Automatic annotation (TrEMBL):
This is EFHD2 protein. Keywords: Calcium, Coiled coil, Metal-binding, Repeat. It comes from the Eukaryota. Pfam families: AIF-1. Residues 1-41 are annotated as: Disordered.
Length: 200
């Protein structure tokens, strides 16, 4: 299972095969690569809501400065500095190593999601760079339980209350306009009646 040397400049490819469940994310590797399994975040990372996955993708794209579908060492360095938890060169390498399944020394979107999966499962050491990344990224992977549901329903109830109050105000305004239009119609009719008595 050796790749042609010219494709990536590497010999045998360690890690998961292209057709395995640990396949590559959309937009990874060389363009037009066929036969590769399309990575579906929602399908593989079912423990996260669609909103959480969108937030993680937005965060990933924000720090993927090269727009190549990977966060490399320098991009990770910048990310950690912006999150307020700068790491040493060795620390950054260890962060990547912990989730780098294909051993290419950079993070694909799938590998990036693994950070949050490990954080949610409590598998990251408190003092690790990945723990700091997950904690500081403002993507809360722990509120999907009761607290998350409670906050969700409270927010939804508040939105419904505000929406119904807004609807009530609109209805009241419409009623008022109808009433005014009706009064105007009656005044015009009364004026015409009065006018017709003068013209006879």
């Amino acid at each position: 299972a050796e790749e042609p040397e010219g494709r990536r400049g590497r010999g045998p490819r360690p890690g998961p095969a292209p057709g395995s469940p640990a396949g590559r994310a959309v937009g990874e590797g060389s363009p037009g690569g066929s036969g590769r399994r399309v990575f579906s975040p929602a399908g593989e990372f079912r423990e996260f809501s669609r909103r959480q996955l969108r937030d993680m993708e937005r965060l990933f794209r924000q720090y993927d400065a090269g727009k190549d579908g990977f966060i490399d060492l320098m991009e990770l360095k910048l990310m950690m500095e912006k999150l307020g938890a700068p790491q040493t060169h060795l620390g950054l390498k260890n962060m990547i190593k912990e989730v780098d399944e294909d051993l290419d020394s950079k993070l694909s979107f799938r590998e990036f999601l693994l950070i949050f999966r490990k954080a949610a499962a409590g598998e990251l050491q408190e003092d690790s760079g990945l723990h700091a990344l997950a904690r500081l990224s403002e993507i809360d992977v722990s509120t999907e339980g009761v607290k998350g549901a409670k906050n969700f329903f409270e927010a939804k109830a508040q939105a419904i209350n505000e929406a119904s109050r807004f609807e009530e105000e609109i209805k009241a305004e419409q009623e008022e306009k109808k009433k005014q239009a009706e009064e105007l119609k009656q005044r015009k009719a009364a004026f015409k009646e009065l006018q017709s008595t003068f013209t006879q």
